[in-house]
Amino acid sequence: DIQMTQSPSSLSASVGDRVTITCQASQDISNYLNWYQQKPGKAPKLLIYDASNLETGVPSRFSGSGSGTDFTFTISSLQPEDIATYYCQQYDNLPPLFTFGPGTKVDIK
Amino acid sequence: QVQLVQSGAEVKKPGASVKVSCKASGYTFTGYYMHWVRQAPGQGLEWMGRINPNSGGTNYAQKFQGRVTMTRDTSISTAYMELSRLRSDDTAVYYCARRGLYCSSTSCYAKGMDVWGQGTTVTVSS
To answer: Quick check: B113 and A44 CB within 8 A?
Structure first.
């Protein structure tokens, strides 16, 4: 099975800072990578799909890039409402398998 | 509006089974795969499996093979997830989630899980 790692596991940044999270797959997953935001007590929310496509309605300060095994998620200017845990998720089609990364908790400094 | 509404919290004893429902509204139920994801207290997200509401075909994560059954009732646009032989480490919030689609002028493609239920807390305790 493909393993996903994320780094850092947590970070603290100031409002307005640029925040970057990385996600690494144990083998080539092309661009089959999604990013989610989860606030405490809430269901996850899709932000980015297929590595770099912004989900409808998601602010443009969120972006994603990468392909193969290495992916990056960026918040260009951190806002107070961005406090959450962020998860990457890869998917395989043969056989169908969806694996989440361990998550990155983002706090305000 | 598009939404998924799940059944209420459950408390079960070890060895019992639990069945969680997920009622879809605002879209064509049979047009989108439904996934189930769980989250143990303080832990990350874990994919359990998916069902094709159109055909009823299922795919389960290996970890849950033999213990999980996903079904649907298209007449009421509802998906179900049943987990049997419950253990204390099955205590978690269980989510249903629709895998979305995006379309070009010629084709549609699957994207991430774009609509989620509110979650159902399942507590397994003797």
So the answer is: yes
